[in-house]
Design a protein that fits this description.
The protein has 54 residues and is an alpha+beta fold. Helices cover 33% and strands 15% of the residues.
């Protein structure tokens, strides 16, 4: 019975992970640190800077 519940939970999580849309690139750096001032985080290359919001 527990195995069935666990398998169902894993299947639901896997389906959500594969079907949920990706967040916008600007949101990927938000909330990296708790209660820190806004800072810039390196993006996909060393010259791309993204703003981080706590």
């Amino acid at each position: 019975e527990i195995d069935v519940e666990v398998r169902k939970e894993i299947e639901d999580a896997a389906q959500f992970a594969t079907t949920d849309p990706e967040p916008p690139l600007d949101d990927l750096c938000n909330h990296i640190f708790y209660n820190d001032p806004p800072l810039e985080v390196r993006g996909t290359n060393p010259w791309a800077k993204l703003k981080s919001v706590s």
